[in-house]
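User: Here's a chain of 165 residues. Predict its fold as tokens.
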Amino acid sequence: MKISLPSSVAVAAALAAVAFPSACGTPTPELQEASVSAVPITLPSGRVIQAEIADDPASRERGLMFRKSLPAGRGMLFVFPAESSLVFWMKNTLVPLDIVFLDSKGAVTHIAAQLHPPGPDVPDWAIPRAAGYGQYVLEIPSGEAKAEGLRMGSKLEFKVKIPQS
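Assistant: Prediction complete.
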């Protein structure tokens, strides 16, 4: 069945869809960005980057999966309840990353540099992984750790709430 709307109603509906896309079920990038909590992280060079926070099991599991880009000066900070041995992998990750492990004081304990996304047909056992020790893990665009001169013991400054799980 085809329904015809008066042209004024059709025009109003089309304008509403353009002006208020979130009301039509598709959030704009600005709204998606606004709903994600982020923290400024000061690098040893004094440069400040913005990192999205992953501080619960679901957000830590999802991480940066399926992101098509990660601009310079952006990242994701994974926050854990305590220091421990941690393993990250690149499953469903579409952008190359540096993965920086940090202790409870924000000092670098390990850097897995320039990890590249696996191809679509790579079996799980062959997906790149990074292992380290810490309470925090910072994922940043590939090459930024080297460009910033990050190394073991480098101190990053940020303030976050420590989760219970």
